[in-house]
Amino acid sequence: MPPDLAELPFFSALTPDQLAVVAQGMTRVTLDQGENLFLQGDPAARFFLLIEGRLKVTQLTEDGQQFIVRIVHPGELCGFGPAIGRTIFPGSAEAILPCRLLAWPRARWEPLIAAAPALAVSAIQAVGRKLDEAHTRLREMTTEDAGRRIAHLLLRLARHAGPGPDPVEIPFPITRQDIADMSGNTLHTASRIMAAWEAEGILLRARRKVIIADTAGLAAIAETRD
User: Fold this and answer.
1) How many C-beta atoms surround the C-beta of residue 84 within 10 A?
2) From 42, 46, 76, 100, which residue has the greatest number of CB atoms within 10 Å?
3) pLDDT band at 1 (very low <50, low <70, confident <90, very high)
4) Are 24 and 108 spatial neighbours (Cβ–Cβ below 8 Å)?
5) CB neighbours (10 Å) of residue 139?
6) Which residues pair with 219 in a beta bridge?
7) Residue 203 φ then ψ, to 5°
8) What are the Cα distances from residue 112, in Å, to 97, 118, 182?
9) Angle formed at CA 50 by CA 102 and CA 97, multiple of 5 degrees
């Protein structure tokens, strides 16, 4: 059994026998920034638990457009096809920071959740979050203008930086193209709006980063009614 497995929140309450079940078939995966964990359409032969870093999960539509489905944060499952009966990965996962993960063969899903039910709960929660995020995006795209959608997105991403005073930096690299994709805008629109916010002192200028200088000001934009 890996000596640090019991130190992870998912497994900290397990007995030595349960930890031994968890460790069966488990491997470790490391990714450099920009490296893919899996590609859309690959066989879903493994599932993963992210320990460190961040992953960007994207999907490619039939007409060749790519959009960001979710950002995977430490402590979250990724590629959990066995939990929902999938045999192929419906999207691609790319490291946006160097990553460390645990991986198991898909055949280990049922023995693993029997030993560590928290993983099944995490999978259900992850599916729920994906649905909730999809509903939120749909509502925002049909009822809000471009600026409000971007403001809501940045505030959601900033929550992962934890509580603290301004300025608040979103704790992983993100491009304006990413922000455009995630908020349902064009790159031109996202860039124009964010440049205006930089001029107003709401955001700080940074390359491949988003730093919010005035969280209250950004929240006011998000809640503005037409």
Assistant:
1) 12
2) 46
3) very low
4) yes
5) 10
6) none
7) -115, 155
8) 27, 10, 33
9) 120
Q: Residue 160 has what pLDDT?
A: 79
CB 167 within 8 A of CB 204: yes
Question: Global pTM?
Answer: 0.79
Got the DSSP string for 106-169? Answer: GGGHHHHHHH-HHHHHHHHHHHHHHHHHHHHHHHHHHHS-HHHHHHHHHHHHHGGG-S-SSPEE
Determine how many CB atoms are found less than 10 A away from the CB of residue 198: 15
- Assigned token pair, 58: 């994207």
Q: Give pLDDT tens digits for 104-123.
A: 999 998 888 888 887 777 66
Q: What mean pLDDT comes out for the span 154-174? A: 87
Which pLDDT does position 134 carry in this prediction? Answer: 61
The two structure tokens encoding residue 46: 């493994």
Cα(164)–Cα(44) distance, integer angstroms: 39
